[in-house]
């Protein structure tokens, strides 16, 4: 069943944490909510969970009205699962007891004792925790604890699974492994997931759709590829794809960076926002550096060099504007070098996606 937020606003006194949010999460969809701290993404999750109710607007889960300004279903009656950043495991319960708990305390699920045990075993197998069923939380690694939290959240087959930055407390290697684990669980369980994160890479890697938020509002919503390649606003461009925002002049689909008449970039697929603002979004991987002065490019000076393994990140100063460029590791520039900056031909042609 789908979940809908219709004209939802949430205020705390004079602070408007959410403003006129309209969003539908379809059955079985994996939606990631991204944005900086304070943008309202956790408030949105709390409203879906039933921990708060909206100041205006309404929330429906399936055909059920879950909340409006005057009333709200409590969390235990919403058929939701929740995975927290801190795991939130009970220290006195074994793994299988942690997972059994929702089945024993959710009155809407009428199951026999044997059926409950069978379901726990299924979820233990799904999350790869069968061999750890009798362990206590203190005997588990961080990744194993997160698997238990996931298992506990999905065991009762909730209509909606809410995840609040569940991987932020794990190290980089574990985060990568758990991303794959969550994707696998989503595929096999068919759960509808709303996943809150500040990590753009997590959202791009896992979600069917991304919702970018800023200042309590939805800035853009679309597929990961759509938002990455075709951002609708400067904020979406800089937050998700880390784009450089370059000033200049547009002439239809032709852009003259820094008002250089002899330098022009073609970009037929660009949001109207950028043309209205006379700016151009260029991702670090869309730009190339040439170690010679070229007439049809931007002259700049290397300010900073960072080796990143598969690429080198350069900070290039062009007319007192710092631009970030990801270059091939075979290129070797040093701070103080003069370079010419150009746009890649592949960026001009685009990749054949519709704008998000």
Describe this protein's structure.
With 356 residues, the chain is an alpha+beta fold. It folds into two domains: 3-226, P-loop containing nucleotide triphosphate hydrolases (Rossmann fold); 227-349, Nucleic acid-binding proteins (OB fold (Dihydrolipoamide Acetyltransferase, E2P), Beta Barrel). It has ten helices and 19 strands. The chain has helices spanning 41-49, 95-105, 113-126, 142-154, 172-189, 200-206, 224-229, 234-240, 272-277, 345-349, and strands spanning 3-12, 15-25, 30-34, 56-61, 64-67, 80-83, 160-164, 193-197, 209-214, 217-222, 244-251, 254-257, 265-266, 279-282, 287-290, 298-307, 312-318, 321-327, 338-343. The strands form four sheets. Strands 6-7-8-3-9-10 form a six-stranded mixed sheet, with helices on both faces. It has a five-stranded antiparallel sheet with strand order 15-19-16-17-18. The chain has a four-stranded antiparallel sheet with strand order 2-1-4-5, with helices on one face. A hairpin with a 2-residue loop joins β17 (312-318) and β18 (321-327). α2 (95-105) packs parallel to α4, α3 packs across α4 and α4 (142-154) packs parallel to α5 (172-189). The longest helix has 18 residues, at 172-189. The model has no long low-confidence stretch (mean pLDDT 91).
């Amino acid at each position: 069943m789908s979940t809908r937020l219709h004209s939802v606003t949430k205020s705390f006194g004079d602070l408007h944490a959410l403003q006129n949010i309209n969003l539908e999460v379809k059955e079985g969809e994996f939606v990631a909510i991204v944005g900086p701290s304070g943008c309202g993404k956790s408030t949105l999750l709390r409203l879906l969970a039933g921990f708060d109710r909206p100041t205006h607007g309404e929330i429906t889960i399936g055909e059920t009205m879950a909340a409006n300004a005057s009333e709200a279903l409590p969390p235990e009656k919403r058929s939701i699962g929740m995975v927290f950043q801190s795991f939130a495991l009970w220290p006195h319960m074994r793994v299988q007891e942690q997972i059994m708990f929702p089945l024993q305390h959710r009155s809407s699920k009428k199951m026999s004792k044997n059926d409950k045990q069978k379901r726990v075993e299924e979820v233990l197998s799904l999350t790869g925790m069968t061999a750890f069923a009798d362990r206590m939380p203190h005997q588990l690694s961080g990744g194993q604890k997160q698997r238990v939290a996931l298992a506990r959240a999905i065991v009762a087959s909730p209509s909606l699974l809410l995840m609040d930055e569940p991987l932020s407390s794990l190290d980089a290697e574990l985060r990568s492994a758990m991303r794959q684990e969550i994707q696998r669980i989503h595929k096999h369980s068919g759960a509808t997931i709303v996943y809150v994160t500040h990590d753009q890479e997590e959202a791009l890697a896992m979600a069917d759709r991304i919702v970018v938020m800023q200042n309590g509002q939805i800035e853009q919503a679309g597929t990961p590829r759509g938002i990455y390649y075709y951002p609708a606003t400067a904020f979406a461009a800089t937050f998700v794809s880390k784009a450089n925002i370059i000033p200049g002049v547009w002439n239809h689909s032709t852009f003259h960076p820094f008002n250089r008449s002899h330098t022009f970039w073609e970009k037929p697929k660009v949001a109207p926002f950028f043309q209205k603002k006379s700016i151009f979004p260029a991702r670090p991987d869309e730009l190339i550096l040439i170690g010679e002065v070229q007439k049809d490019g931007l002259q700049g000076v290397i300010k900073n060099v960072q080796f990143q393994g598969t690429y080198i990140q350069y900070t290039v100063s062009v007319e007192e504007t710092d631009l970030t460029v990801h270059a091939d590791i075979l290129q070797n520039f040093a701070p103080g070098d003069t370079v010419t900056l150009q746009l890649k031909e592949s960026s001009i042609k685009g990749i054949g996606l519709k704008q998000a």
